[in-house]
Amino acid sequence: MVGAVKAGWTFSPWDKDVASLEGVLPKAEEVGDLRLLAEAYFWVAYLRRAQGETEATSPALRRALERSGEIGRELGDDSIGAIPLAFAAMGMLFAGEIRQALGVLEGLLPVLQRHGDRMGAAMVAEMLPMGYARLGEFAMAERTGARSNAIARDADVMAILDAHINDAYIDLERGRLDGAADTARECQGEAEDAGALSCAVLSNYLLGMVDVVRGDVRSARASLERAGEIARSASLYPWRNRVFGTLSWTRAMLDDAGPEARAELDRAIEMDRQTKDAWDEATLLTLRGTLRARSEGTREAGLEDFATAAELFTTMGARPALVRTLRAWGEALDLAGQHGDAGERRAQADALAAEMGLEAAA
After folding, report:
1. Within 10 A of 75 (CB to CB), how many other CB atoms are there?
2. Contact (CB, 8 A) for 124 and 109
3. Residue 159 to residues 44, 127, 164, 284: CA-CA distances in angstroms?
4. Which residues contact 305 (CB under 8 A, 6 or more apart)?
């Protein structure tokens, strides 16, 4: 069963793969092949986490990670014990503890490589460029991105596509929007041709985010709708909240979905708070701020959204995202007639952008 999941996980619905694996785990425990068990629990944890589950909300995910750690200690194999730590670091990354997560991941990568764990090494390696890009440390993002691409070539097609998508993400954070769009579009075609559905979701989402930053809301909606269609049709849940939250924002901005679009955006932000996904919360708060700022009746609430988002990004050290938030906040303050405060926000954004060498579009 583990072999079948490994061979087909990029193409089949993940909830079915998880159900198949969990169905055979009791028998596998009886047989007692600990290395095979460790691999099975890895895939259960990996696929559950990829579907959007977290240790805080999913007892099944928590149990898979705990059992994997137990097996690693029993075998004296630190590479098996590294997997639960990698998942914890992944949670830290999305919770906004970016610097701490990167430290954990950098320590785990050589352990996994030393033991020849190609999938585990690829999973850890692909998180590092994203983290460094979020901090605005682009030399490190490019260095770890090149390493991730090299490691992925020894794993599978999904790892190769994920590593390539990171190249688009680095360009997006850096403000190189044309490059980000070109790479994301290339990944989109390759992912859909290969049937790598989760990669197709992510590449379409990134295309949408490029257009969000450009201010092309209609084009952003088209890419986000495609990401949502794939996620729904294949029962895939990764990035679900960010995809549908951002899509709701585009619909509300285009006034084509009535009050329900705003309500969906509000629900997405509340879900991020419940799951402690500070990055997505701050991203969606910035978008909601731009929406609310358009109307005098909701403008003050929009300014509060910007203030909260800026505080979250500052705490994370997420400088490129903070630049985008400060610039949007400045535009909203201008609409409110608070031109002095607007100028201060723009000056803060410009100073940060110059410090990182961001492109003007960022």
Report:
1. 14
2. yes
3. 17, 11, 9, 28
4. 285, 286, 288, 289, 292
pLDDT digits (tens, 9 = 90+) for 152-174: 998 788 889 999 999 999 999 99
Residue 235 scores a pLDDT above 70: no
Q: Residue 11 pLDDT > 60, yes or no?
A: no
pLDDT surpasses 90 at 141: yes
Cα separation, 199 vs 128, whole angstroms: 17
pLDDT at site 266: 97
Alpha helices per DSSP H over the chain: 2-8, 14-31, 34-50, 59-75, 78-95, 98-114, 118-135, 138-152, 157-174, 177-194, 197-214, 217-233, 240-253, 259-274, 278-292, 299-316, 319-335, 339-356
Residue pair 147/138 in contact (Cβ under 8 Å)? The answer is no
Structure token digits, residue 253: 């901005």
At 107 the pLDDT is 94
State how far the alpha carbon of 17 is from the alpha carbons of 10, 24, 29, 39, 45, in Å: 10, 11, 18, 14, 11
Cα Rg, the chain, nearest whole Å:
21
